[in-house]
From TrEMBL:
<dbReference type="Pfam" id="PF19328">
    <property type="entry name" value="DAP_DH_C"/>
</dbReference>
<dbReference type="InterPro" id="IPR036291">
    <property type="entry name" value="NAD(P)-bd_dom_sf"/>
</dbReference>
<protein>
    <submittedName>
        <fullName>Dihydrodipicolinate reductase</fullName>
    </submittedName>
</protein>
<dbReference type="InterPro" id="IPR045760">
    <property type="entry name" value="DAP_DH_C"/>
</dbReference>
<feature type="domain" description="2,4-diaminopentanoate dehydrogenase C-terminal">
    <location>
        <begin position="208"/>
        <end position="352"/>
    </location>
</feature>
Length: 357
């Protein structure tokens, strides 16, 4: 039995919290909440779980560390507050507590992450004898496990292209995804963070470099491209209302170049409605989203992943899968040698144990 603290209960965190409460091999030791409206409430209320847990949400990080859990599941928004998140994660790790999480997406490929984010976390793991594992669906699954699976089916590869094509209209995250990607922002307004030089390559570059290293190639360079689509008509969706002239779709990619040719592409195509950006790629067969890999080689491989749910929206299904990527690894990470854990360190079957509950 692993004793676990859930840190935040947002889009991803409420699903990891449900899994921690539900799984018989995990025990919920504590829950962190930043919002005053959540503090003091039972964990069950924060994730629509039927039975009270008796575990009340707190913003007292010291008190949560004093519970000495085996692991913290960290899903607090981190990309808008990376310095604070690194400090918070470092304090947990230095206290000897393992962390799995979806935040700080730079750390999805930890050995290829930039020094500013990797080094302090590496030091904290060493100080506490603890381990840190960050993953998700994208970045994460589509650029690592999915790609590794596809490449296992070819004898020769010419190029690897990963795509997330997803409708974010129902993603209730105007604060980060919306603002950072520039949804609802006019063309002549100040450029949103994603379009500043190097930002896309910084966030997805680690996965590109990690794949290049696994393929045994040395890339000439890692580049980025971004393109925005502005709606001629008003759009109302869960994320926000978009006025005519404002951005309602984006596509961006980080690319690995070898001998002048793009051989690795990690691309996003994100819309707020299927009517947006009609000339860009759509998911196949009427799906609202796809996580896809295409390997050109011998033979050509294409694998399309569609997450869905009988009750919830596909965006929520994607958040459940993001939670799954890390919650399922808790047991292995708790037994791992101290340090930064990368997806390839974890045997593929080790994350299956305990899933049938
Ligand atoms: N790789 C992937 O596939 C993937 C997919 C989805 C998300 N993510 C990442 O996972 C993280 C969570 O995403 P999300 O959609 O769940 O985010 P979210 O719902 O927008 O926010 C998550 C939580 O962050 C907490 N928070 C906000 N400001 C805080 C602060 N100053 N201090 C402490 N906590 C704070 C809030 O906690 P309270 O509710 O307690 O106030 C909020 O619920 C993000 O970093 C995101 O980039 C990765």
């Amino acid at each position: 039995m692993r004793r676990v603290v859930q840190f935040s209960t947002g889009n991803v965190g409420r699903h990891s919290l449900r899994a921690i409460i539900g799984r018989p091999d995990l025990e919920l030791a504590g829950v962190h909440a930043a919002s005053p409206a959540k503090i003091g409430r039972d964990a069950a209320e924060l994730c629509d779980w039927g039975e009270p847990t008796g575990v009340l949400a707190t913003d007292d990080v010291e008190a949560l560390l004093a519970l000495k859990p085996d692991c913290v599941v960290y899903t607090a928004l981190a990309e808008t507050r990376p310095v604070e998140a690194i400090e918070q994660l470092s304090a947990i790790l230095a206290a000897g507590i393992n962390v799995v999480g979806s935040s700080l997406v730079w750390m999805v490929a930890p050995r290829h992450a930039e020094d500013w984010v990797r080094e302090p976390l590496e030091k904290a793991c060493a100080a506490g004898g603890s381990s840190l594992y960050i993953n998700g669906i994208d970045p994460g699954y589509s650029g690592d496990t999915l790609v590794h699976t596809a490449l296992g089916l070819v004898t020769r590869a010419e190029s690897v292209a990963v795509q997330e094509i997803f409708d974010y209209g129902n993603y209730d995250d105007a604060e980060f995804t919306g603002a950072a990607m520039g949804f609802g922002v006019a063309e002549d307004a100040e450029l949103p963070p994603l379009y500043l030089p190097g930002v896309v390559a910084s966030m997805w570059g680690g996965q590109v470099r990690s794949l290049a290293a696994a393929l045994g190639i040395t890339l000439d360079e890692v580049t980025q491209r971004t393109e925005r689509w502005f709606t001629p008509e008003r759009i109302d969706c869960t994320m926000m209302t978009v006025q005519p002239g404002e951005m309602a779709a984006v596509r961006f990619a980080t690319e690995g170049v070898l001998n002048g040719k793009v051989v690795i592409t990690m691309e996003h195509v994100n819309r707020l409605t299927s009517a947006a950006a009609p000339d860009w790629d759509f998911p196949p067969d009427g799906h609202s989203g796809v996580h896809r890999v295409v390997v050109e080689g011998d033979p050509r491989i294409e694998i399309n992943t569609h997450v869905s749910h009988p009750v919830l929206d596909p965006t929520d299904a994607g958040c459940i899968s993001t939670a799954a990527r890390v919650v399922n690894a808790i047991d292995w990470v708790c037994d791992a040698p101290a340090g930064l854990v990368s997806v390839e360190d974890i045997p593929q079957t080790a994350v299956l144990n305990g899933l049938l509950w």
